[in-house]
Amino acid sequence: MAYPQTTKTILTAADISRTVDRIAHQILEKTEGARDAVLLGIPTRGFPLARRLAGRIATFEDVSIPVGVLDVTLYRDDLRMRAARAIGKTQIPPAGIDGRLVILVDDVLFSGRTVRAALDALGDLGRPRAVQLAVLVDRGHRELPIRADYVGKNIPTSLSESVRVRLSETDGADEVQLYPGTDTSAAPATGAAERRVVA
Amino acid sequence: MIAHLLSAADLDAATATLVLDTAGEMAGVADREVKKLPTLRGRTVVNLFYEDSTRTRTSFEVAAKRLSADVINFSAKGSSVSKGESLKDTALTLQAMGADAVVIRHEASGAPHRLARWIDGSVINAGDGTHEHPTQALLDAYTMRSRLGRLAGLHVVIVGDVLHSRVARSNVHLLHTLGAKVTLVAPPTLLPVGVGSWPAAVSYDLDSALSGADVVMMLRVQRERLSGGGRDSFFPSDREYSRRYGLDDARLRRMPAHAIVMHPGPMNRGVEITAEVADSARSTIVEQVGNGVSVRMAVLYLMLGGL
Amino acid sequence: MTVAYLVRSVSILGGEPTDILVRGGVIAAIGALAGDALAGSDDESSETTEALEVVEVIDATGLVALPGLVDLHTHLREPGREDAETVLSGSRAAALGGYTAVCAMANTSPVADTAGVVEQVYRLGREAGLVDVQPIGAVTVGLAGEALAELGTMATSAAHVRIFSDDGHCVSDPQLMRRALEYVTAFDGVIAQHAEEPRLTAGAQMHEGEVSARLGLAGWPAVAEEAIIARDALLAGHVGARLHICHVSTAGSVEIIRWAKARGIRITAEVTPHHLLLTDELVAGDGGLTAYDPVFKVNPPLRTKADVEALRAALIDGVIDVVATDHAPHATEDKECEWAYARPGMLGLETALSVVADTCMGDGGSASGGLDWDGVADRMSRAPARIAGLADHGHDPAVGAPATFTLVDPAASRTIDATTLASKSRNTPYAGMGLPVRVVATFLRGVPTVLDGALVAAAPEVAA
Question: What is the ipTM of this complex?
Answer without folding.
Answer: 0.93
